[in-house]
Design a protein that fits this description.
This is peptidylprolyl isomerase. The chain contains four helices and nine strands, in the order αββαββαβββαββ. By secondary structure, the chain is an alpha+beta fold.
Length: about 200
């Protein structure tokens, strides 16, 4: 009986020590890096494979199948010289474009439109394919916002520029032509993408 009592006391004394053991840190988010070589210089993107898996996998398929090679940065929406976004991609070219993907809102992924964020262009949710934007300056208005009326799902951000924002700034401030689909926003001399390759 005394032996049992001593074991019980020992167990109770050990319990607080066990409770103080720090919890294991959550696993780091899995990412992938892609280097985009352009006629204006190189850009390195870090993509959120675990947080935005569908959108990241879509972009990586364009990269791995070399569908972005030879495409261009064709559009710039410049609010100020340091705020706006640039757009690039396949522009629905039949031999390059892949099927649309499911929309991943920022409320689901936690990947937001910070300065340098890469996001996928879309019309209605679920129509995004092979055209992408890069934000210059934080743009939370592009995030999903359930408090808004109508289509409040925003755009699907899935990574950010980690090297080469100087190149993005040059593209943002490139001269534009007055014609084209987006009047006053089409780059007069589009910036060519020479290659896009994984570097991880």
């Amino acid at each position: 009986m005394l032996k049992r009592l001593l074991l019980l006391v020992a167990a109770l004394c050990a319990a607080p020590a066990l409770a103080q053991t720090p919890a294991a840190a959550p696993p780091a988010a899995e990412t992938a890096r892609v280097k985009v070589e352009t006629s204006e210089g190189s850009i390195v993107l870090e993509l959120e494979k675990s947080r935005a898996p569908i959108t990241t996998a879509n972009f990586l398929r364009y990269v791995d199948e070399k569908r972005l090679d030879g495409t261009v940065f064709y559009r710039t929406v410049r609010v100020t010289p340091t705020f706006g976004f640039v757009q690039f991609g396949v522009q629905n070219a039949p031999k390059r474009v892949l099927p649309p993907i499911k929309h991943e809102p920022t409320t689901q992924t936690g990947v937001h439109h910070v300065d340098g964020a890469i996001s996928i262009a879309r019309l209605a949710p679920g129509t995004a394919q092979g055209d992408f934007t890069i934000s210059v300056g934080a743009q939370p208005s592009l995030d999903a916002d359930p408090s808004r009326e109508g289509d409040n799902l925003g755009y699907a951000a899935f990574g950010r520029v980690v090297e080469g924002m100087d190149v993005i700034h040059r593209i943002l401030n490139a001269p534009v032509s007055e014609g084209g689909h987006f009047k006053g926003e089409m780059i007069a001399d589009p910036v060519r993408i020479l290659s896009a390759r994984r570097i991880d």
